[in-house]
Amino acid sequence: MVQATPFLLVLFLALGAHGLSVKKCNLTGRWVNDLGSNMTITTVNADGIFAGSYHTAVTATSNEIKVSPLQGAVQKSPNQKGQPTFGFTVNWAFSDSITVFTGQCFVDEDGKEVLKTMWLLRSRVENIKSDWKATRVGINVFTRLQLPE
Ligand code: BTN
Fold first, then answer.
1. 0.90 exceeded by the pTM?
2. How far, in Å, is the centroid of ligand 1 from the Cα of 55?
């Protein structure tokens, strides 16, 4: 028992230090995706509910692009291990469409946070016969927007 104590102490410290050093992916902040769209997530509450704004770089319409609100949720289960899954909806302020994104917040091998997402863009169509052409699908990769120093 006496011999085991220092060993257990070292093990405990090593595990503790490892736990402390693992960087977690945090959704709050400003992000840019591979299309050049900008997104800001303002607050994430204790239940994982969040809100923010989205400035798309592109549109499927001929309308003037406006900054649009988003609302979402990030998984708060303990199994997420600092790389949580999430989803959010953008209710476009300048078109009749809605986009839903789902994804996971990763920390890559360089320690950089990356959001890997898939999206569905639902456009409004005039009638049920046109439903087949109403949905687009794609992927977007977001990285944290670096502020100039
Ligand atoms: C519209 O055109 O009706 C609204 C804008 C849609 C922009 C889409 S959403 C998925 C993709 N990712 C972006 O950042 N912008 C486009």
1. no
2. 9
